[in-house]
Amino acid sequence: MTKPFYKHKLMYDENMPPRTQYPRLNAHFDVKHVSHDYHQDGIPDEDVYQLACEQGRIVITINRGDFEKLVGTKDDCGVIAVPDGPAAARTDTKLTALLMRHGPKYFRGRVIPLGAPEGERQAA
User: What pTM, to 2 d.p., does this model score?
Assistant: First the structure.
């Protein structure tokens, strides 16, 4: 029996490229960008995380360290930290694959570095 598809809700931190550079993610998931969709440039990471949690969105960011201290409980929305520099097409593919493999409970209250082996993924 195949696992049912879950349409994750994502929020790109302002340091991320525009969401149009990630066509696979946009095709499968509900993606918003804090700067381009919400017009919230320059807001503190705490406010980005709070907004994402209020809306049930997973934060996608390059600033792993800034968000690690914000993730606290299993009810939090969670964070996926992407490496700085790789081509958007590769990040798009890896993010889509990760999100397709896991349901929402997997991401809650965790910071997940994209591309790290399963054993290196950290719970907050």
Answer: 0.86
